[in-house]
């Protein structure tokens, strides 16, 4: 791996559904708990479909070592309908401005025969050392978490 890829996981899975079907789940924050393999992601604060870059959506979360319940605010930084979607998780400062945490989620979709090749990228290269120390290092999970996430996405799409 080259130096610029040391702090990222990239996994691909083919799902027996159209890119539009997969994208419909990914662009709906109310469905994000269905694509998360643990109970970390709870529900969308305001469940409405993502429609473009720059939008913000908030998710209720739970993680014991993070103090229990908290809200993660996400800014959409990649959006091409039925092709790609990504977001930058973070928090809001006292003025309501988004403060990214330094990691990102991105899904790239490509038609592949009768299905869709889904590439999931989790990148933590921009995470500050202070946060890394607080959570015991980055990422807070191994690659199997993304394997399980893609399997959960497939179950959500194909039902």
Terminal residue distance = 36 Å
**Mean pLDDT reading:** 91
Largest sheet: 8 strands, antiparallel
Count every beta strand, where a strand is a DSSP E run of 2 or more residues: 8
Name the beta content range. Answer: 35-45%
Number of domain modules: 1
CATH C-level = Alpha Beta
Tally of helical segments: 3
* Fold-level CATH name: Alpha-D-Glucose-1,6-Bisphosphate, Chain A, domain 4
- The percent of residues in helical segments reads 10-25%
Shape: globular
What string gives the helices and strands in order?
EHEEEEEEEHH
Radius of gyration: 15 Å
Poorly predicted segments:
none
What is the CATH architecture annotation? Answer: 2-Layer Sandwich
Give the structural class: alpha+beta
CATH homologous superfamily annotation = START domain
Secondary structure blueprint with pairings:
Elements: E1 8-15, H1 19-26, E2 41-44, E3 56-63, E4 68-80, E5 84-92, E6 98-100, E7 104-112, E8 115-123, H2 129-135, H3 143-158
Antiparallel strand pairs: 1-8, 2-3, 3-4, 4-5, 5-6, 5-7, 7-8
Protein name: SRPBCC family protein
InterPro entries: START-like_dom_sf
